């Protein structure tokens, strides 16, 4: 009896267990599957998401279905897989292993099923190979702080001056005979005859005689008046650039000089000479330009992104192409306050000692500016960074074909690498090629998630809704549905005609002029496939986009910009 009961029990188990999996578990699985909503998006504009098939309201391309695989891992296994660990205080800092932050708080695990709404995408290994996805590991490097640039030597503006006069006259004697002549401070430069200077000297001699005649006078007011007259005569000569020594000499000798001598204010080299002996000169005219060349300025241009590497006092190593084998050293003395809007560079001034006058103004130099010593810091290759204008993004390789966009804060740039201030740590693996494609796919995943939660972008949702409302109006009373079917059949027929007439798809050297059969100077071109050109409106046989009207010149420019050749 017991044996019979045991046999019946075994038979019941064998029958009931498969039945359970077939009906109960199967229905649960089907509910999950059926619960997944099929969405549609535009291949050109991933922000356009719709729950029905149709056309993109922007480019009118057919919307394509999106497969949502965010729950696949949960359906296949009840276990939750950890993708990475996140800093609890700064979500931009992540790690591939458990650890603690500076405050001793544990990093928070991020599970595979939680990452779907955060832009994590899964890419099949075969697709990765087709996309040529390449990765690299974030390393600690000490970036070079040197700045390499070029420069031009100019004179030190603080050590040059113009020789001029405040009176009209004639050059009676010239002591400087050629450009490049060295002059010492106080050396004679020229003798000038000027009627105004002679008149001023005469006033001085008259004032001296008048003062001497009143020396024994008892009238104090008259004596004070003669003293004031003498002071005014001396002051007039001083204003005409007559030296005090010459004035005192004239007081002692009581002689009237017909010429006045101009002396060098400082030692230097004559750079400009605009006069000859016997020449008439005018007040304020530039006669000589003299500059001290013992120190020269080297003016260099530094790119905007290299400015953080330099400061006043930074040392510079300088080599001149005209003096091979010899190295000079200088120091940054000034950084100009404005940036050139065209070249995005700032001018930097370097003081360069010029011993034995070896260096000449306008000489060309190669310059290496030594910046501050940098510490070891995480760095990423330049080609791994996506700079959107609002933020800087890199694509993290999470392993197992999963990728995630990660916002980073960048520091200085040097030798093809960016310094990472936050967002990445040593050992993170990042994508160095095809990251733009992955970032686009990630944005699409986020858009899908927002659409499903009702948080989609308003403008995009409105466009799709407007399109759907328009279609609903057409389908009223059953008439719109028929029109839609006719319209789709017409579009398909047009597509077949376009496909059949391959004349609007051009390869090789394109003869643009011959396409303009009606000779109106206008053509229709696909903004997606630029080698699709027609002389009448229609749709592209390759992507189904509406052809856009351009002038012949614009068509040629579009072809050239996108790598196509045309007959010139």
From TrEMBL:
<feature type="domain" description="Heavy metal binding">
    <location>
        <begin position="40"/>
        <end position="65"/>
    </location>
</feature>
<dbReference type="GO" id="GO:0022857">
    <property type="term" value="F:transmembrane transporter activity"/>
</dbReference>
<dbReference type="Pfam" id="PF25954">
    <property type="entry name" value="Beta-barrel_RND_2"/>
</dbReference>
<dbReference type="GO" id="GO:0030288">
    <property type="term" value="C:outer membrane-bounded periplasmic space"/>
</dbReference>
<dbReference type="GO" id="GO:0060003">
    <property type="term" value="P:copper ion export"/>
</dbReference>
<dbReference type="InterPro" id="IPR045800">
    <property type="entry name" value="HMBD"/>
</dbReference>
<comment type="similarity">
    <text>Belongs to the membrane fusion protein (MFP) (TC 8.A.1) family.</text>
</comment>
<feature type="domain" description="Heavy metal binding">
    <location>
        <begin position="524"/>
        <end position="549"/>
    </location>
</feature>
<dbReference type="InterPro" id="IPR058792">
    <property type="entry name" value="Beta-barrel_RND_2"/>
</dbReference>
<dbReference type="Pfam" id="PF19335">
    <property type="entry name" value="HMBD"/>
</dbReference>
<protein>
    <submittedName>
        <fullName>Membrane-fusion protein</fullName>
    </submittedName>
</protein>
<feature type="domain" description="CusB-like beta-barrel">
    <location>
        <begin position="295"/>
        <end position="371"/>
    </location>
</feature>
<dbReference type="InterPro" id="IPR006143">
    <property type="entry name" value="RND_pump_MFP"/>
</dbReference>
<dbReference type="GO" id="GO:0015679">
    <property type="term" value="P:plasma membrane copper ion transport"/>
</dbReference>
<feature type="domain" description="CusB-like barrel-sandwich hybrid">
    <location>
        <begin position="162"/>
        <end position="290"/>
    </location>
</feature>
<dbReference type="InterPro" id="IPR051909">
    <property type="entry name" value="MFP_Cation_Efflux"/>
</dbReference>
<dbReference type="GO" id="GO:0016020">
    <property type="term" value="C:membrane"/>
</dbReference>
<dbReference type="Pfam" id="PF25919">
    <property type="entry name" value="BSH_CusB"/>
</dbReference>
<dbReference type="GO" id="GO:0046914">
    <property type="term" value="F:transition metal ion binding"/>
</dbReference>
<dbReference type="InterPro" id="IPR058790">
    <property type="entry name" value="BSH_CusB"/>
</dbReference>
<keyword id="KW-0813">Transport</keyword>
